[in-house]
Every structure is written in C-alpha cells, then in structure tokens.
Amino acid sequence: MGQWFAENGLLIGLALLDGLAYAALVFMVAVGLNMVFGVLRIVNVAHGSLFAIGAYAAASIGLFLASLGLPPIAGFAALLLAAALVGGILGPLIERLVLRRIYGQEEVLQLLVTFALFMILEDVQKLIWGVQPIFQDAPMKALGTVDVPFGEDVIPFTAYQLFVLPGVALATLAGLAWFLRRTLTGRVIVAVTTDKEAAMAMGIDAAKVTLLTFTFGAALAALGGALASPTTSLVPGIGAQTIVLSFAVVATAGLGQIEGAAISALMIGLGRSIAVYLAPEFEVVVPYLIMVAVLLIRPQGLFGRLETRRV
Amino acid sequence: MSASDRDAPGVAAPRPSMRLPEAGLALAGAAALVLAAWAVPWLKFVLTIALAKGVAVLGILLLLRAGQVSFGHSMFLAVGAYTVAFLAPAVPEALLLLPLGALLGGLLGLVIGLFIVRYRDIFFSMLNLALSMVLYSLLEKLYDLTKGTDGIRVSALTFAGAVPDRETQEWVMFGLALALALGFGLLVRAYLASPMGRALAGIKTRETRLEFMGVSARRVLLFAYVFSAVMGGAAGTLVAMTTRHVTPQLAYWTSSGELVFIAILGGAGSALGPFLGATAFELVRVYAAAAVADAWQMILGGVLLLVILFAPGGLWGMLTSRLRGRA
Amino acid sequence: MSASDHRRAEAAGDPDRPREATRAPLLSARGLRLAFGGVKAADGIDLDVMPGEFLAIIGPNGAGKTTFINMTTGYLRPQAGSIDYDGQPILGLSPRAIVKRGIGRSFQLPQLFSEHTVLENAALAIAAHAGLWSPLTPLLRPRYREEAMALLDRFGLAPLAEARADALNEGARKLADIAMAAALQPRLLLMDEPTSGVAATEKMGIVETLVRVLRDTGVTAVFVEHDMEVVERFADRVAVWSQGRIAALGPPEQVLNDPAVLRDVIGIEPAHHA
Predict the structure, then answer these.
(1) Domain spans, chain B
(2) Cβ neighbours of B254 in A, within 8 Å
C-alpha cells in the first residue's frame, strides 16, 4: 500500500471510496434508528448493540460455515442469516418485554430504559464472544479487488466495499422508499409516524406496527453490523461507538427523515474519511462537528420539520 | 417529582411536612456514611467517589427539573478531572485546584450553554452527547498532551500546604466530598425553591407562559446549565484527587449515561436523591464486580430496568412513600 | 344597569376625561395580513383600541381572532401591516419584549405551571414582574406570598391557593390564567376566550369577577368571546371578525342587532353553548 500513499491526489480518491463504503454502513444503522424513532418516539440507545451483535453473529456463522467446508462465498449467506436471526429474536423480545411498557412516558425514562438494555447487551456480547478481537473477512476476500481508475492512476479497492456495501445501502434506501409509499403496511407505518393518535383512531393496530417497526429496525442494525464485520476486527465497544455515530447522522438529517439520513450519512462518512487522511487526530471529532454545525444553522436538522407549539 | 405526583389534587399538606425529614435524613445519611467509612476502611474510597458523583448528578437533577436530559454531562466532570491532572505538577494545592476545576467546568458550561439552551428534548440530549464525544475524542487523540487512553497519573497533592499520609489523605478526601455534597445539596435546595428554580420547573410544563411573563426561558435554563457544569467540574476534581488517575473514559458518553442512571435510581424528587442513588450505584457496582466480574454491567442494567419499570420515583420515592405510609 | 352600560355612562359623564374620539388609541393596527397556506387568517385588519375601553372580538371559528392576539403579542408575525402600541411600532419584537412594554395576554387553553400550586403560579408571575433573578431566596418569601395572596383574593381564588394548578376546574384555571397576566400590571390585556369551556352556571360569576377586578386596575381589555350575553355585559365596543377581516365595529347594542351579524355570527352561536 505504501507507494500510493505518497501521492496526495490518490489519497483523496481513496478517502472518497472509503467514505462511500463507510457512509453505506452508517446509513444502514442510522436509518433503522430513525424509523424506530419515527414510530415509537423512542431513541434507542441499544441500537448500536444490535449492530455489534449482528457483526459478531455474522462472523461466528461465517466461521462455522467455513468449518463445514463450504466455499467462501457462503459467507454472504452468513451475513443475511445473522441479520435475520438478531432482528427476529432480539427485536420482538426487546419490544414486547421492555419497550412496550414505557411508550408515552417521560423521555428520560425511555432513554434510560434503552441505556439499561445497552448495558445488558454489552455484557451478553462479551460473555458470548469474549474480549479478544475476532476477524472474519472471507466474504470480502472472496470478491477480490478492483482497480478503480482515478485520473491517470488506479486505486486497487476491494470489490466488497466498492459494490456490495453501497449497493446494499442503495437497495435498502430504494426498498424502504417503495415499501413506505407503495405498500399498505408501509403507509400504515407512515401514518403512525405522522400522527399516532389519528392513526389509532382510524383503527390501526399500533401494537402490531410498533412490533413490526422495531423488529425491522433491529434487523437493519444487525445487517449493518453483519456487512461491517468482514471489513474490520470486532472488539468490545463497537456498539457504543456506532450508536453515537448514528445519533449524529440522525440528528443532522432531522428526526424521522429517511432519505435525509442517506445524505447526512454520506456527508458524515466522507467528512470522516477525508479527516482520516488529512488530519487523523480529528477523525472521530468530524461527525460531531458536522452535526453541531448543521444544528447551529438548522435546529431541526437538515431535512427535519419544525414543530410549532400551539398556544 | 413523582412523589408529589401522587398527592391528592389540592392537598398541599404533605409538601411542607416533607421538608423536616429531608434535613434530618441528610444528617443521618452523612453520619451513616462516616460510620461506614470508619467501620470498613476500604469503603472510604467507594463512598468518596459516590459522593463526588452525587455532586455531578445534582447537576443532572437541575436539568431534569426543566424536563431536559443531558447525555453528555460527564464532559464537565472530565474538565474538572483533567484540570487537576494537568495542573497538579505546577500547583499541587488541592484546595486551589478544586475551585479552579469547578470554575473551568462552569466556563465550558457557559460557552456550550449559550448555544445549547436553544434546544429542547432529544436535540438537547444529543447535542450534549455530541459535544462530550468531541471532548472525549480530543482527550483520546491528542496523545502528546493527554497520553491518550493511558491517561495521566495525578502527581502528589498538598492540602492547605500539608502533605498528609495516605490514611489521613483518604479521610481528607472523604471529608471534602461530604462537605461539598452537603454544601451543594443545600444550594440546590435553595435554588429550586427560588423564583428562578420554580421558573426552571416551569420550562418543563409551560415554556410559552414563561415567555409571556417576560421571562427568558433560555436564560433560566442557562443559569441552571452553568450551575450544573460547575458542580460537574467540582465533582471531577474530587474524582481525580481520589482515584489519582484520569482517563478520557471519564468523558465517554456511557459515563454520562451513568450519571443520568444515578439520578433516576436515586429519584429526582429531592436533592438527597443523587447521593442515595450514587451510593447505591457504587455499592452495587463494587459487589457485582466482585461476584461476577464479567457481568457487573448486566446486573446494573437489570437494576436500572427494574427501578424504571417498577419504582419510577427512584430510591427517594420509595423512601418517602414508606415514610408517608407510616405517618 | 349592566356593566357595560355603567362603563359607557361613566366614560360619557366624566368631565375630567377627554372624549374617546379625541384621544390617541392605545393600540393601532393597520393593514395586517397573514395567510397560512391558502387560508387568510388576517386579510387587511385595521383596528384602534382606545385607552380604558373593553373591546370584544366576536366571529366564527377560523375567522382569525386568535391570530390577531398572536400577532399583537409577538407570537406570530404578519406578512404585511403595522401595529403601534402607545405610539410605538411593536411588530418584530419578541413576546417577552412586548410583555415588558405593557401588553399582557391570557390563553384559550390556560397556560398554568401544572406542577406548581396556584399560589406559586401567582407568585412566579409577580416575581417575573419584579425581575426574578434571585437564585437563593425562596419564591414564597413573605413579600411575594402576600402579594400573590392579595392577587388571588381579588380574583376569588384565595381558597384554592394551595391546590396544584392541574387540579383546578376550567373556570378557576381561566381565572388563574388571567390573574397571572394581570400580575404583570399590563396597560393592555388581551384575553382569548376567557369563558370558553366554563360551565354555564359559573360563567356569569367569572365575568362579574373579571369586570370588577379589571375596572379597578383601569386596564384596557380586548377579549375574544363567543357568548353574546357576556359580550353585552362586558364590552364597550364589539368588533366582528369574518374571514380575516373586520365585518362590523361599534357599540354592542348596534352591532348585536345588525341583521347580517345576527345571521353570520350569532347564527352559529348555539353550538358554543354545548
């Protein structure tokens, strides 16, 4: 890798590619968080833990499949399976047993309930997977690298990060937009997001909608984690890191904004990866600075609607 | 808050009568802590930290009165702690460093507060969180200055010029923490009963009315925010002087979450709640860590869930309803 | 003799007071326009409010009555027009700045601090008027407590002083809401439906209390009202709002007997008695 680090222009090209892949992952997590907030009106602090558990589960399943002698490409099945398992088991469990009891309560109690879940899930994750780094990059290796032309040079970049991550993110975005606008269930979710009381007065089964939405949001977080697992080594603390980053994306976009989350994920992803190459000390700070700067100018977020108080 | 929620409408009698036990309970609690620290020497350290955190949680409690949750408040604690760590080699005097840490906490609180009091609810929480993460990242990344995640060892301190032996110093720190806890507790109580404190609670219920009374809700909230930052800074100096080692972890968002946890565990209804909560929190943490080293966080999380779902008034709420039931 | 008769007789018969027409208006609105989407909440409002008078605003729901109050108190900004108070333009000032100039308001949905007692609500308003900035002395110090009790007493709320604001019935909430506005000693008081939602049996009692207290303080009052009985009794002049315009303006006996007003405004009135 050393030789193309010498060239500054290539750095920027690499930063852009990196940022794109990173933004795709961040979007997957943030969009789930945003949907859950839209319907449940709860900011789920434990959302990052679902990301982490999804990542660990994907790695474990991938390693298991590999031990059966299946080809590396089977790792992709592991990613989907992990997301489905984590979302399908933990999602309903958390919503039914815990969140259901605190709808409409004071915000501080809601935040703290999910904070308690975060504390519990962090330890569950440590108990199952330990604290040693886990690395399982078979799906990424299986696809090899692509030479991306950049001016007169080429940047070798993994096909996984170049195509799979942004591809899945785009598919999620398009799929969600279609689902929310064109399907009955989607429209019901939108109705509950816009005006819960009115939706319930119309006979919508809010309990079903919240369960469905939370499960779906959890699965998206887990899928984000699963997709991220081949690109990095898994260590305790990634859940805590991920959740604050998704907060930044969601707050920057405006609460409840799905397309907005994609744009702010892109801003924050690119901003961060440019900082990685230009001023590495400030890499972690950039997302928060972007968020603070945006909220200074638009207190409701880039795409958020201002809620007016009634007198 | 939740204790008074249970008052029958229009029945005001329980309120003034609760004042008496509050003062008595504070003294009894202080005496119990001294006794515990004397009887079980290793508890002194735990209880000092609990009192220090209680002081920081008083700040959380102020903001909760306005209906706002700061999910980044430990940044002020970190400012106080790093003030001690940075300056101790040059100015080893604890009695100077303490007010200095509080002052710097308050200054940062003023700078951040000037902009953050424009926001409410989830945006208030998230902006606090984001800013605390900025501080955390800087503390972690500016290695030359802060030694990163390794943290800084606090060099030897003097107390009013004297260098006490280890045992004495532990008692001095415990006494300082207890004195600050009582002092700030009294201040907070007086403040909450004052026009500004009552207006602060008004932000939670009727912010528009405040504006139409000619009162700037932002200024009311700013005062509370700076006050809470000062307490956070003071608490941070106590933590640094007691643990003698500061790391960026102090400013991480999970540390802020802990402070909010303690506020709700103790109950937001009284200035005693934070200390009740902090003591319970630290004791559970110590015993849970000893019993199941890998799952103490899970136990704390479980306790938190149970408290919120089954005793939303916190320990203070349980205590007062018990007392009231007997009366 | 009704309260308004009394008021007009007093205004006309008092040789020391200049005639209404020759005095400068306390509040003067010109050409106010404001549209929400396609709905014209204000479509060229011109109105003068004379010092000392009680002006009632009537009209169907959605005619822009509350919008006028919101514009006058700085909560909404009109797209065009001007509002002068005491000869000074006040458009663009914040609600707080406008309150400080001497314009108070009460709300259709009473805006009380629900977790505070009635006494604390009143004391807080009195403290706000006095400056509020004392973080360590109690709100209920003797001075504020006495002033607050005196205020509550004038509004007939003294027996409820220790009750929590959210435990009051609607009539008491309305009175407490107006008492808090009155605690700021405004020269102009804008009241948004002071009797809506109040039980019919209580209504006149509340109106009597308001007339008595406000007359004592010499305040100028503008109030939105649906109950024509209250308007008759309370108002010196009546302004009829219709689709963001003032359709009629004059003394109650004239306006309330106008066939057009009877049909358009009072015709829908029975719905509000429910």
Answers:
(1) 40-250
(2) 240
